[in-house]
Each structure stands twice: as C-alpha cells, then as structure tokens.
C-alpha cells in the first residue's frame, strides 16, 4: 500500500487520493505530488561572483567594466547599485544605476556589499 504524505497545510495524516490529486479532509487542501517537487525546483538561488546568495533589496558592486548595449556608455568597475530586484532570465538583476537609469545586470558581474 502506498504511504500518503501528511497535508502540507495542516499536517493532517488523514489524506486520501482522488485521481491525481491528494486531498485533506480536515482543511480541504488539494495538491499533487508533482507540485511539491516542482516548487522545490523552481526556487532558484541567485549568487554573486564570489558565491554569496543574493536577495531582493541587497546592495551590490560591479566587479568589471560593463559596456551598455546600444550606447557608448560604460558602467565602471566599483559602481555601487542599491536595492536590486532579482528576476528570471539571462540578466537576472533589475536595478537603477545613478547616471544610467534602469538597467539589467548578470549576477556573475557583481559582488554583494
């Protein structure tokens, strides 16, 4: 017999299967086993050039001169960026840099302050 997991919401042991769903009779929470593993895979960890974990709102410093695509401007090494926002994609940091405006950066070119 298959051992069913406890409810992730209320920890009730009285869960049951209904097709591909697991249901808790105490709190009426419905979930699938795949959704639990998908959530664990989706929580991407963003790290800077030194391997430090980045979070929304952190301040970082640019570690390499970065050419701004479409212009002749260069973000110089040592430029401080405050209040970053992490996003999915190739450039995983959204930020605002004084003198440049809105910018997207790769986490591999910054270090956490």
UniProtKB/TrEMBL annotation:
Residues 3-32 form the Protein YjdM N-terminal domain. It comes from the Bacteria. Residues 47-112 form the Protein YjdM C-terminal domain. Belongs to the YjdM family. This is Alkylphosphonate utilization protein. It comes from Cohnella herbarum. The lineage of its organism: Bacteria, Bacillati, Bacillota, Bacilli, Bacillales.
């Amino acid at each position: 017999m298959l051992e069913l997991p406890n409810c992730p919401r209320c920890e009730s042991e009285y869960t049951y299967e209904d097709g591909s769903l697991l249901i808790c009779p105490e709190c009426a929470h419905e979930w699938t086993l795949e959704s639990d593993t998908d959530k664990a895979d989706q929580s991407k960890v963003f790290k800077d050039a030194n391997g430090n974990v980045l979070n929304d709102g952190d301040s970082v410093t640019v570690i390499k001169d970065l050419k701004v695509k479409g212009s002749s401007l260069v973000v110089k090494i040592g430029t401080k960026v405050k209040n970053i926002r992490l996003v999915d994609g190739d450039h995983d940091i959204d930020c605002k840099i004084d003198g440049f405006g809105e910018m997207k950066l790769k986490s591999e070119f910054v270090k956490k302050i």
